[in-house]
TrEMBL record:
Role of this protein: Catalyzes the transfer of the diacylglyceryl group from phosphatidylglycerol to the sulfhydryl group of the N-terminal cysteine of a prolipoprotein, the first step in the formation of mature lipoproteins.
Entry membrane topology: Multi-pass membrane protein
GO molecular function annotation: phosphatidylglycerol-prolipoprotein diacylglyceryl transferase activity
UniProt EC number: 2.5.1.145
Species classification: Bacteria, Pseudomonadati, Bacteroidota, Bacteroidia, Bacteroidales
Protein name in UniProt: Phosphatidylglycerol--prolipoprotein diacylglyceryl transferase
GO cellular component terms attached to this protein's record: plasma membrane
Amino acid sequence: MNTFLLSINWNPNPELFSLFGFPIRYYGLLWAVGIFLAYVIVHYQYRDKKISEKKFEPLFFYCFFGILIGARLGHCLFYQPEYFLSHPLEMILPIKFLPTGGWKFTGYEGLASHGGTLGLMIALWLYCRKTKMHYMEVVDMIAVATPITACCIRLANLMNSEIIGKPTDMPWGFVFERVDMIPRHPAQLYEAIAYFLLFLVMMYLYKNYSKKLHHGFFFGLCLTAIFVFRFFVEFLKENQVDFENSMNFNMGQWLSIPFIIIGVYFMCFYDTKKFRK
């Protein structure tokens, strides 16, 4: 049987609609949904821990800009430094300057999860300095919500037909028509499913064992699970930039290794004798 006939042709219009001349894309919408869901989940944890609304209010601002700035700079500097260092305004502004003069609105095409994670961690440190909250308590709460946001981001990549997988003869292969007519692993969907399942595990552990688990456990579990899965799923993905073709591991894998080490440390070794009261 021709497995191509069993594959899924995938060619959604990445633009949902236009608002006052600006395109509203699935990519941006799913990012917004992911951050909103995280906001709701973290808010629930603040109320559950009886932390004041005054301390919660500025959290969204820090998280949103920390993730956005970190993810954007991460993509520009990790994956395309030669281009963006010579076009620095395009790092900051969601536009592309045209060779013929002028510019066009593109949105932020290129956001790296490793950079977003690092940006978030720095932003939370600044937030904790301002609110006098315990850093590990805050990052643990954020960690519980992070997988659902990661799930939405990978669905956004799927709607954009980007970060595609390698060719496959599996019947669930996706033909990304905007790229080519070859059935490929839907690596974005693999990640989205994995992160959603991780979110369910995190919520179960929070509701049933949060008072017994040490500070840093949820943070460590989140980093370890996400980036271990990310490391292995990269074997099913096409390299994003040409220089990765000469590397034993691609950029995403190399960047995942430090986060895995940090995650294992906080999950297994950090503060293991001091439990939450």
